[in-house]
Amino acid sequence: MRKLKIILEMIKFEHTVFALPFAVMSAFIAARGLPSLDKLGWILVAMVGARSCAMAFNRLADAELDSRNPRTSMRAIPAGLITKSAVWIFTLISAGLLVFAAWRLNPLAFALSPIAIAVIMGYSYTKRFTALSHFWLGLALSISPVGAWIAINGRFDWTPIVLCLVVLLWTAGFDIIYACQDVNFDRQHGLHSIPAKIGIRWALWLSSALHIIAVLLLFSIPHLVELGTFYYIGVGIVLLIFIYEHAIVKPTDLSRVNLAFFTLNGTISLVLMVLSIADILL
User: Which of 88, 117, 221, 265 has the fewest CB atoms within 10 Å, measured from its CB?
Assistant: First the structure.
């Protein structure tokens, strides 16, 4: 239990809140109401397994780099709080949980589960060769609404694809903000990120542009599926949070990056989920 607690702290288990609400929102839209509790339960299991697998593997892949970076040197593996073998076991169990949940949902979800694992684990190596690693992270999280839609309906559709693009752009945008903290370290160690490549000022402008496009895509979704007032209120709140997020992070002041990255983006996904579900049910 002590090792499990250390691992859950290491992978920031509470940050499952980023992608999970989009999966739940997609499930409700796909079902046009309350999904069956059985399917909803297995979607949650799949999401927890996927996110836990991705983050644990990321900590394994980055252990050596984390030990060199003053900002991350006290993470569990470089600090010697947990062994790599224990984290490997947790990673494999989490991946198995995702595959098992997908098998319980439907054949298409099960068939696509290995691809999902490849995408979410592959992200950990992208910053070694491309500055577009932020978009790969976005892709990894954007699987969630598509996977939930497939879990409910057993097929692809345009609505989850648009939601997928929203999550991809939203994630890439806030990950660019987060990467601004490590510009000097990334340049010194040959790692790739957009802030390291084009500078913090231009990176923040790009992040803003990505979030603007994400909001426009959110406004387009009611043209694909019936959504009303509560949904539009949710999108309006998301827009206001984006404006605040980009107002508090400046090229000359990165002291509030954690607020922008963790608190505000967690709020975005939760607000949009709650008001979308309210719109569908009420």
Answer: 88
Q: pLDDT tens digits, residue range 92-137?
A: 999 999 999 999 999 999 999 999 999 999 999 999 999 999 999 9
Alpha carbons 31 and 257: distance in angstroms, whole number? 37
- CA–CA dist 43, 50 (Å, integer): 10
Whole-structure pTM value: 0.92
The owner of tokens 């970076």 is 69
Torsion, Cα 138 6 115 118, to 10 degrees, reads 80
Identify whether the C-beta of residue 151 lies closer than 8 Å to the C-beta of residue 42. yes
Longest Cα–Cα distance of the chain, Å, equals: 54
Question: Chain centroid to CA 233: how far?
Answer: 23
Dihedrals φ, ψ of 47, to 5°? Answer: -65, -45
Report the candidate in 111, 149, 125 with the shortest Cα–Cα distance to residue 57: 125
Give the position of tokens 């046009």: 32
51 in helix, strand or coil? Answer: helix
State in Å, rounded, how far the first CA of the chain is from the last one.
Answer: 42
Give the chain's residues under pLDDT 70.
11, 13-17
Domains of the chain and any CATH numbers: 2-281 (1.10.357.140)
Residue 28, both tokens: 């409700």
Residue closest to 174 by CA, chosen among 208, 143, 146: 208
Angle 195-170-102 from CA coordinates, rounded to 5°: 120
Report how far residue 4's alpha carbon sits from residue 36's, in angstroms, rounded to the nearest whole number: 31
Across the strands, what pairs with 250? 253
